[in-house]
Write a structure and sequence with these properties.
By secondary structure, this protein is mainly beta. It is flat. Strand 8 and strand 9 form a beta hairpin. The strands form 19 sheets. Strands 58, 61, 62, 65, 66, 67 and 74 form a 7-stranded mixed beta sheet that branches. Strands 18, 20, 21, 22, 24 and 26 form a 6-stranded mixed beta sheet that branches. Strands 45, 49, 50, 51, 54 and 56 form a 6-stranded mixed beta sheet that branches. It has 8 domains: 158 residues, Immunoglobulin-like (Sandwich), CATH 2.60.40.2030; 106 residues, Immunoglobulin-like (Sandwich); 128 residues, Sandwich (Immunoglobulin-like), CATH 2.60.40; 108 residues, CalX-beta domain (Immunoglobulin-like, Sandwich); 114 residues, CalX-beta domain (Immunoglobulin-like); 108 residues, Immunoglobulin-like (Sandwich); 80 residues, Immunoglobulin-like (Sandwich), CATH 2.60.40; 93 residues, Immunoglobulins (Immunoglobulin-like). Keywords: Calcium, Ion transport, Repeat, Signal, Transport. This is Calx-beta domain-containing protein.
């Protein structure tokens, strides 16, 4: 059997089931042989096996080179005449290197021995099997030919000898130029042709410019690339690439070499070139300092290690370098070559090469450039600067810092600073500013310019209030030892005691002893303690919490908080301390125990909560007493009065209407509205009266109690019920009467009022209740703005009230009184309500009785005008009736076929008008128009169309 690529090239296609590894195909061949009973016979040497009587293979072992036929001769011997017989035969793979079924053909057939004559005792017939000449290098292959006659068999073995050369190979890299950070590279062997033999190719690696152990991991000894039979290539071999930190200038390479073996020919080499991923290192130099006489060591740095040594030139020059900002450079001195240091020109700084990633030698990335300095005894500017410059690097490049400043620190004593006068007190004054002079002195002259800074800062004294903060610099030229400056002291009238501010001296070129950093300067106070007054307050009570504010005034300010103990003295205004105080008793909340006038201020405040309520009460007052509790104010006790004015309505009572029968005793009651702190007194009287059209009771219908006093205790809540005198006695008579009413009314003693109530005596002795009123409308709608007649019936002489609700009105404003009238002797009555913009719901009442409800709509009655004042133009004007802005309008024109077309759409403007101008009309033509104004169903306003109007166009 051969693999598909080979057989496709030489001998056609191969059955699918036979394509696969050799071991699998061998098992399949054995399985087929087992199924058909072709178990290979044990091969033995000649003479040929004679399992079929009279039949043998001339040779039981036949061989040929692949592509040549194998001929198996079967010899029959016997007694003449030989009978005609037919043997069948099959060829099947067998042996350790079994041939595949596609290596030989045919795989079965028959041999026909003819009838012999009387003299023939031997016959020989061949079985010829062709072999396939493929291109695969493989072992010699064998198969078994089995001839069968009845139940007997004879066998022979065929061997196909290979005639192909061993394949060559190439080495394939997944990436021949990996980056250093790639991590790995893989190599595999790929055959020039597949082989039927197992192949093992020895492989080794070797340095070119790359170094094993530093740039990559070498291939271990005895490593092979193995290729299974029938496979085109080996599994990949992974070689680790080292990502080192070294700059290596160029690409690093190594080779991978494969050897030959018994099953493969030739040797091959593949080269791996590793791309370095480190940037070229940069050389920089950093600034440094040293005391005079000590060497200046400039750190010279390499940004990363290099595989080769790196050098850079370094030179010195006077003065600071460009790395120092101008402000700093201006404050330094200039070091001079030959006086302060030894000049250097083009000295070489070397960074040693680094060869092993795990062993980077010290100094590979940092070296020092050393410059000698000179010690002297001169007091000089500190520091004095020189600078070093690097240039001309090898292997590396220059970084951004190629210039660095070296500062030489002076070690000679600076002059010492003192402050005069030695007395640290200054007077305050009452106003204005007075300049106080201070002197700064050096203990010795300096050979350089000396600067002394002075700075003031508030301590107990305040900048801007007690003194003017100042700062500055005194500059001593070489040889000078004395300088002066001034500080303004601000006079005031604030009581503050003695205060102090700090005066600080500092210098970078002279020594300032500790007592001068800082010095306390005392300002002597000359002001008296302030006196105090407190103002009284009058305020309305309000309905909630509000704040009473008492201003505290000082005659003059103090420098610290002025404090007072605060005590409230109750008057008519009180602060309740009971668990359940009566309404109106809690008038205020006690003020805080302490009041403060802030330092520097002449006004402070006492404030506390005034408890506003809705309780009627008289104007009330209390007092606030202030007692000084700090020593910075005159010890006078002050009081102030708070007056709280009432702003609540006096309470009222409303007599509750009641119903009674003749002979009853009715306890009349009243409901309170509002609360008073104290008792309220009202008087109530009873008299027969007609109420909303009712019949008045006569004096004989009840016993009139006269003037009845009604007392409402202080604190009684709103909505409480109180008795109005003793029960009212209704007289039981025999007169036939309808319902009658008694009016209860009265007055209040002082503020407040009494709201009337009604006692209704039910009909008795055959009397009947008045009939309920009725209501009808003369039409279901009113056309345009105007009045409409409403008719109704009620009891003769009854007072009738008309109530109306605009259609669409909210419920809380649904019904309103539209007037009253009196029914005539027959009980008839009429109303004429006016319609403006909406329809209405109506009903009437007589006393507690009410009529049926009716609804009357308002319908638009639009006015329509048309004119043609210019050629081809018509102006159409529509006026709503009612004129309700925003109603939609449509203007229509009659067509010759009896239909109408819309020529204008719009809305009524704020004046209830809509105008549409038509242009392009035919001059002399006559047009018929009409207009529709659309109502608003939500308010009961109905849609209507105007009369048609004809116009001739100019």
């Amino acid at each position: 059997m051969r693999y598909q690529p080979v057989h496709a090239a030489k001998s056609g296609s191969v059955p699918f089931m036979l394509r696969g590894p050799k071991s699998v195909r061998t098992m399949l061949s054995a399985a087929v042989a087992g199924v058909i009973g072709l178990v290979p016979a044990v091969m033995v040497a000649s003479p040929a096996e004679a399992a079929i009587p009279g039949y043998t293979f001339q040779s039981t072992s036949v061989s040929a080179t692949e592509g040549q036929p194998l001929v198996f001769n079967i010899v029959r011997t016997g007694v003449a005449p030989l009978a005609a017989e037919t043997l069948t035969w099959t060829a099947t793979p067998s042996g350790p290197n079994a041939a595949d079924l596609d290596d030989f053909t045919p795989a079965s057939g028959s041999v026909n021995f003819p009838l012999g004559d009387g003299s023939t005792t031997t016959q020989t017939l061949p079985i010829t099997i062709s072999t396939t000449d493929d291109s695969m290098d493989e072992e010699s292959e064998t198969f078994t030919v089995t001839a069968t006659l009845g139940a007997d068999t004879i066998t022979a073995t065929g061997t196909i000898t290979d005639n192909d050369d061993a394949p060559t190979y190439t080495l394939q890299l997944d990436d021949s130029s990996p980056g250093e950070a790639a991590g790995t590279v893989t190599v595999r062997a790929e055959l020039s042709a597949t082989s039927g033999k197992a192949i093992s190719i020895p492989v080794t690696s070797a340095d070119v410019t790359a170094k094993a152990g530093q740039d990559y991991v070498a291939i271990p000894a005895n490593t092979t690339l193995d290729i299974a039979p029938g496979q085109p290539q080996s599994a990949p071999l992974t070689i680790a690439i080292t990502d080192d930190p070294l700059y290596e200038e160029a690409e690093q390479s190594f080779t991978i070499t494969g050897g030959a073996s018994a099953t493969v020919t030739g040797t091959r080499t593949a080269t791996v070139t590793i791309s370095d991923n480190e940037d070229q290192p940069e050389v920089t130099i950093d600034p440094t300092t040293a005391d005079e006489g000590d060497p200046l060591k400039f750190p010279v740095r390499l940004s990363g290690p290099s595989e080769r040594a790196v050098t850079v030139a370094a030179s010195t020059a006077d003065g600071p370098g460009s790395d120092l900002d101008s402000t700093t450079a201006a404050s330094h001195g200039t070091a001079k070559a030959g006086e302060d240091y030894t000049a250097v020109t083009n000295a070489t700084v070397t960074f040693p090469a680094t060869t092993v990633n795990a062993n980077i030698p010290n100094g590979s990335t940092q070296q020092n450039f050393t410059v000698s300095t000179t010690a002297d005894s001169t007091d000089e500017v500190d520091p004095e600067d020189l600078h070093a410059t690097i240039s001309a690097p090898t292997i590396a490049a220059l970084g951004t810092k190629t210039v660095a400043t070296g500062g030489i620190t002076d070690d000679d004593d600076s002059p010492t600073v003192s402050l005069l006068p030695s007395t640290r007190r200054v007077p305050e004054g009452n106003s204005g500013k007075v300049a106080q002079t201070f002197t700064v002195k050096l203990n010795k002259a300096s050979g350089q310019t000396v600067s002394v800074n002075y700075l003031t800062a508030g301590d107990s004294a305040w900048d801007g209030a007690d003194f003017t903060a100042t700062s500055g610099t005194l500059t001593f030229a070489p040889g000078e030892t004395t300088k002066t400056f001034t500080v303004d002291i601000i006079g005031d009238t604030v009581y503050e005691g003695n205060e102090a501010f700090d005066l600080t001296l500092s210098s970078s070129t002279a020594t300032v002893p500790a007592p001068l950093a800082p010095v306390s300067i005392q300002i002597t106070d000359d002001d008296a303690k302030p006196t105090v007054t407190v103002g009284s307050v009058t305020m309305a009570e309000g309905n909630g919490g509000s704040v009473a504010v008492f201003p505290i005034k000082l005659s003059n300010a103090a420098s610290s908080n002025v404090e007072f103990a605060v005590q409230d003295i109750q008057g008519t205004a009180t602060t309740s301390v009971s668990a359940n105080p009566l309404p109106g008793v809690l008038d205020y909340v006690e003020p805080a125990a302490t009041a403060i006038v802030p330092a520097g201020q002449t006004t402070g405040y006492v404030y506390f909560l005034v408890n506003g309520d809705d309780v009627y009460e008289l104007t009330e007052s209390m007092q606030v007493q202030l007692t000084p509790s700090s020593s910075n104010v005159a010890a006078d006790v002050r009081t102030a009065t708070l007056t709280i004015t009432n702003d609540d309505e006096a309470p009222t009572i409303e007599v509750v209407s009641a119903k009674a029968n003749e002979g009853d005793k009715v306890q009349v009651r009243a409901i309170t509205n509002g609360v008073a702190q104290d008792q309220s007194l009202f008087s109530v009287t009873f008299q027969g009266a007609s109420v909303k059209g009712t019949v008045a009771a006569s004096p004989a219908d009840f016993i009139n109690p006269g003037v009845v006093p009604v007392y409402v205790s202080g604190g009684t809540p709103s909505g409480a019920s109180v008795d109005v005198g003793n029960p009212l006695e209704i007289v039981d008579d025999t007169t036939s009467e309808g319902p009658e009413t008694i009016l209860a009314s009265g007055t209040a003693f002082g503020a407040g009022k009494v709201i009337d109530g009604v006692v209704t005596i039910a009909a008795s002795d055959g009397g009947t209740d008045a009939p309920a009123p009725t209501l009808t409308s003369s039409a279901s709608y009113r056309l345009g703005v105007g009045s409409l007649r409403l008719n109704g019936t009620a009891a003769a002489g009854a007072t009738v009230t008309l109530w109306g609700s605009p259609i669409g009105a909210p419920e809380d404003k649904a019904w309103e009184s539209l007037g009253t009238t009196t029914a005539n002797d027959t009980g008839a009555y009429s109303f004429f309500p006016k319609f403006t913009t909406t329809g209405w719901h109506f009903r009437t009442t007589v006393g507690e009785q009410q009529s049926n409800a009716i609804t009357v709509y308002l319908k638009e009655d639009p006015d329509f005008y048309a004119r043609s004042s210019s050629r081809g133009t018509a102006v159409l004007s529509v006026f709503g009736d009612p004129r309700v802005a925003g109603l939609s309008v449509r203007i229509l024109r009659a067509n010759s076929n009896g239909t109408w077309s819309t020529v204008g759409l719009g809305q009524l403007d704020a004046n209830g008008k809509y105008v549409r101008t038509l242009t392009g009309l035919r001059s002399g033509a006559s047009y018929l128009y009409k207009a529709t104004v659309y109502g608003d169903g939500d308010v009961g306003l109905m849609t209507n169309t105007s009369k048609s109007l004809r116009i001739r166009i100019r």
